[in-house]
Write a sequence for this structure.
């Protein structure tokens, strides 16, 4: 996605993948800066650790509580978040609706991506959110933050268990999977069989290089509209690109084609 975009924009740079062990994010950021990197995308499991390893966090990322993009400028490390704004663009494109009009159930809201999506949705005007997380205690700080952001918000929690999820789905427009479940073939199903209906929209942040996730397959079987993680990958990537190269418009179609061919 990024290499075709760099070529299309005539930028003499390349995008590479680097695997960093947990606990080494600060050290790796120092090495990236030393070796002339312009920026970095940060993914699972590093997003919280990365927040502690930068010189500055931009105001939106501060609000979202997590960074996924590093900008390296004049030796300084600036952290920002493009998952949140990317989610808004991607929902608009996939479902033809604004998040402000939708009732969302976010599975995995206690993780980095889930938290970012929850806060960004409320900032964008969403007024009905149901949050679920396997470790329920991780939702507490997020609940306080969201209540402080929008006093009129209808905010509920739901156990990550089949009966509770089935009940929660009753009053929901969009189910968002922000857990890492589905990344590996054979992961247990997140929702009880038959729980989805044609009226639901399903947004799976997970993407697989080959084939679809079980959640997307379940959405398809139910006749529900659906978007997989490729959509978010594209839009958050385009926003990252524009952070790294201010004044350059990310060539979305080139990036989309790059993703498809990869
Ligand atoms: N498409 C994109 O561009 C894009 C962008 C961002 C993220 N993502 C994807 O979103 C997912 C989450 O990323 P992240 O950065 O938020 O990771 P993270 O901070 O490590 O959070 C992982 C989340 O998954 C939950 N989880 C893990 N295993 C589970 C299981 N077996 N059952 C139920 N919940 C489980 C965790 O629950 P606990 O709190 O209980 O551990 C936590 O809520 C990843 O698959 C990532 O690839 C995709």
């Amino acid at each position: 996605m990024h290499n075709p975009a760099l070529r299309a924009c005539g930028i003499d740079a390349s995008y590479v993948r680097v695997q960093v062990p947990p606990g080494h994010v600060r050290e790796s950021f120092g090495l990236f800066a030393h070796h002339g990197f312009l920026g970095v995308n940060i993914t699972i499991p590093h997003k919280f650790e990365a927040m502690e390893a930068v010189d500055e966090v931009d105001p939106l990322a501060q609000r979202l509580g997590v960074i996924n993009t590093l900008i390296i400028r004049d030796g300084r490390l600036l952290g920002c978040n493009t998952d949140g704004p990317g989610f808004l663009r991607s929902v608009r494109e996939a479902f033809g609706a604004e998040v402000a009009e939708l009732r969302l159930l976010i599975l995995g809201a206690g993780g980095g991506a889930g938290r970012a999506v929850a806060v960004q949705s409320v900032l964008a005007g969403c007024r009905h959110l149901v949050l679920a997380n396997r470790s329920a205690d991780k939702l507490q700080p997020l609940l306080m933050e969201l209540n402080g952001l929008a006093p009129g918000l209808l905010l509920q929690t739901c156990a990550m268990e089949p009966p509770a999820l089935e009940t929660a789905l009753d009053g929901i427009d969009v189910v968002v999977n922000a857990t890492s479940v589905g990344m590996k073939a054979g992961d247990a199903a997140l929702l009880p069989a038959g729980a989805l209906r044609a009226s639901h929209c399903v947004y799976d942040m997970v993407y697989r290089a080959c084939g679809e996730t079980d959640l997307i397959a379940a959405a398809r079987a139910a006749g529900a509209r659906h978007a997989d993680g490729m959509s978010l990958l594209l839009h958050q990537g385009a926003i990252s690109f524009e952070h790294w190269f201010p004044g350059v418009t990310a060539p979305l179609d080139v990036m989309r084609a790059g993703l498809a061919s990869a």
Notes: The first strand starts at residue 39 and ends at 41.
